Amino acid sequence: MNTLQQSSTSPAEKFTKEECHKELRAFRHKLFDLQNVFYADGRFSLLIILQGMDTAGKDGIVRHVLSDMNPMGIQVKSFKVPTAEELSHDFLWRIFPHFPAKGMMEVFNRSYYEDIVIPFIGKKLTKQKLHERCEMINALEKHLMDSGTHILKFFLNVSHEEQKKRIKERLGQPDKRWKYNRADSVAADEYKDYMEGYDKVINECCGDEWHIIPADQKWYRNYAVAKILTEYLESLPLKYPSAKKLSEKASMIAQ
């Protein structure tokens, strides 16, 4: 069983901050073009899942990696603490309306994986129930992939020391203070428990499909996610529809 504590939170590659910023700019230009053909192709959808501790940089990935994309083709959904209505349904109920349509990309800032991690930490569910949830998620993701939805899962791996530093920065800077929540400090105090919860998720929920991103250096984190996303999209057989296909589609709409 692999554990997150065995995974480095600092980059293994020997890149400077300047090099990563330069590469990131190039990737963002490529992502703009790739998203355009992805949308026009219309055969696939893409779900990007961002998980990590508070301050790991989920919002930062959206802002620094995805901001050059056309907002007509990508949406972001941030999953907060479940509402009373959501809690009255199955734990996956609130997720279904947000899966991406063909040609679209959807970013989950946190996801259904929180419904394993949080009950694991609070001991709200038995081991058997948690295992059953993992199996349901595995079946759901297989269904999505069989239906043409590609899934990229990123865990942003930030160290306990760096997390505490970033929480302190939030409190000391007016432009960041609004992001602070008392729950952030509570979660930081339970860092080891959270890591064990995420270990369970990564090992039982299609662990070989997770990308563990060192997140102590924001500039490397952004570069690494952009590189993986760009290379993945480049590996898909994307193409613009032919004039014949466009004509057939127009005829169908007119009928």
What's the CATH superfamily of one domain, by name? P-loop containing nucleotide triphosphate hydrolases
Strand content range: 5-15%
Strand order of the largest sheet: 2-3-1-4-5
Instruction: Provide the CATH architecture of one domain.
Output: 3-Layer(aba) Sandwich
How would a crystallographer describe the biggest sheet?
5 strands, parallel
From the spread of the alpha carbons, the general shape counts as globular
Instruction: Report the strand count.
Output: 5
State the CATH class of one domain: Alpha Beta
**SSE pattern, N- to C-terminal:** HEHEHEHHEHHHHEHH
Could you tell me the radius of gyration in angstroms? 19 Å
In helices, the fraction of residues equals 40-55%
Number of helices: 11
The whole-number mean of residue pLDDT values reads 91
Structural class: alpha/beta
* Low-confidence runs: none
CATH fold title of one domain: Rossmann fold
- Span from first to last CA? 56 Å
What does this structure look like?
The protein has 255 residues and is an alpha/beta fold. It has a domain at 45-57 and 67-217: P-loop containing nucleotide triphosphate hydrolases (Rossmann fold, 3-Layer(aba) Sandwich), CATH 3.40.50. The chain is built from eleven helices and five strands, in the order H-E-H-E-H-E-H-H-E-H-H-H-H-E-H-H. It has a five-stranded parallel β-sheet with strand order 2-3-1-4-5, sandwiched between helices.
